[in-house]
Amino acid sequence: MRGDIVESPHMAAQGDLNPGFCLRSCGAAVRGRMKFTQLRSIHLQLDFSMAFAVASDEVLGTFVPVAVYWIYSGIYALLGDLDEYRLHNKAEEDTKNVVSKSTVVKGVLVQQAFQIAVSLSLFSVGRANSGLAAGPALAIESWLDQSRPELAMRPSPMLPTSPCDLLLGHVADLVPILWLELAINHGVVSDDNGTKVQPSLLTLAIQFMAAMFVLDTWQYFIHRYMHINKSLYKHIHSKHHTLVVPYAYGALYNHPLEGLLLDTLGGALSFVVSGMTPRTGIFFFCFATIKTVDDHCGLWLPGNLLHMFFSNNSAYHDVHHQLYGTKFNFSQPFFVTWDKILGTYMPYSLEKRKEGGFEVRPIKVKS
Predict the structure, then answer these.
(1) How far is residue 116's CA from residue 120's CA, in Å, rounded to a whole number?
(2) Which residues form a coiled coil (predicted)?
C-alpha cells in the first residue's frame, strides 16, 4: 500500500498545512531555541565579562595604590636612619613630633580603610546608576523574555517568506548581540579593522599632565582653605601637622575627612577631567602615591629622580611643616605653580649640618 497523504476536512479547517509550511514552522522553532540558547549564553558571558572587568579595575584602582604606599614607605624604613641625608636629626624627630609611630600607622590604616569603603561605595552607586552596567543586561533580559522557545513554537502566519524578510529577521537577531558587544567594549579604542588598541603615548602623556594639573589645583585650594579656616584646621588638618618632622609612612596621616576631600574627591575629579581609562588611572594614582610618600620622606637622597624633575619635593614640603612655613608652600603633590602665582611660595636653601645631614633654611624675600 502506498503512503499517500490524504487531507481530511478537519485538517483543511485548520489551514493549509502543506509540507513547506511545516518545515518553516519547525525551522522557526529550532531557530527560536538556538537564538534563545545562544543569547542566554552571550548574556551570561556579558555579565561575567563586565563584572570581571569592572571588578578588576575597581579592585586594582582601589587597593594597588594602598599596597604601593606601604611598599614604597617600607623601603625607606628599611634603609635605616641615613643620618647623612636627613633634613632633621633623630633628636628633632623624637622631640617635635607629638604622636608615636604606632599611632601614625594606625591612623593611616584607618584613613585608607575609610577611603576604600567610600571608593567602593561610589563605584557601586555608579554602576547602579549607569546605563552601561544595567542597561544592556536589563534590556537583553526583556528581549530574551520575548524570544523564548515556547513563543517560537507557536504557529504564525507572519513567517518570513522572502529573502528580504529573512534578512530583516537576522538583522533583528543581531541588534541585541551588537548592543552587548558595545557594552563589553565600552571605552576601548579600536582601529579601522576593529582591533583593540591602547591610547598612544602622546595621549597618555597629555592625560597624565591634565590629571596632575587638576589634582594640584584641587589640593592647593582645599589645603590652603584648611589653613585659613581655623575650625577646619583645629579639628581636621592639624592632625597632619602633628608630624613636624615628616617621615615616609606618615605621608597620609590625616583626618579621614581630609583624605576624602583632598585625595578621594581630588583623585576622582582629576580622573574624570583627564579622560584617562581606568587602567591608566591605576598607574596615575600609584605615581601620585609614590610622589606623596617621597615628599614626606624627610630625606634628601642623591640621584633622586623625583627631585630632578619636580621642584615640589621633600625639602619644599618640609618648609610647610615648620612653624615659619605653615602659611606657605601649600602646593602638592607635583608642581609649585599656584604658590608662585598666588604669592604663597617660600624659597629655601639646603645647608649641610656639621653633625651630618641637611638643614632647610627659608630665604627671606624682599617686599
Answers:
(1) 6
(2) none
Q: What is the DSSP letter of 238?
A: G
Paired strand residues for 348: 362
Cis peptide before 333 (omega within 30 of 0): yes
The H or E element that residue 104 is part of is: helix 101-129
Tell how far CA 160 is from the center of its chain.
Answer: 48
State the average pLDDT for the chain: 78
Q: Which amino acid is at 352?
A: K
Q: Are strands 189-190 and 196-197 parallel, antiparallel or unpaired?
A: antiparallel
How far is 147 from 200, CA to CA, in rounded Å? 42
The answer to whether the CB of 141 falls within 8 A of the CB of 43 is yes
Cα Rg, the chain, nearest whole Å: 32
CA dihedral 271, 275, 279, 280 (to 10 degrees): -80
Angle between helices 163-184 and 19-78 (to 10 degrees): 10
How far is the C-alpha of 78 from the C-alpha of 100, rounded, in Å? 18
DSSP, residue by residue, 224-259: HHHHHSHHHHHHTGGGGGG-SS--GGGTT---HHHI
What is the tens place of the pLDDT at every residue in 125-139? 766 665 444 444 444
> What's the pTM?
0.71
- When mean pLDDT is compared across 2-16, 230-244, 276-290, 338-352, the lowest value belongs to 2-16
Q: Residue 321: which of 239, 207, 213 has the closest Cα?
A: 239
Burial of residue 245 (CB within 10 Å: 0-12, 13-18, 19+) is buried
User: Is residue 43's pLDDT more than 70?
Assistant: no
Task: Check pLDDT > 80 for residue 344.
Answer: yes
pLDDT at 309 over 50: yes
Q: What is the mean pLDDT of residues 271-275?
A: 94
> Which residues, 6 or more positions from 186, have their beta carbon under 8 angstroms from its beta carbon?
132
**Identity (one letter) of the amino acid at 350?**
L
DSSP 229: S
C-alpha cell at 79: 634603609
User: CB–CB of 249/108 below 8 Å?
Assistant: yes
Q: Measure the CA–CA gap between 147 and 144, rounded to whole angstroms.
A: 5
CA distance linking residue 64 with residue 283, whole number of Å: 9
Identity at 346, one-letter amino acid code: M
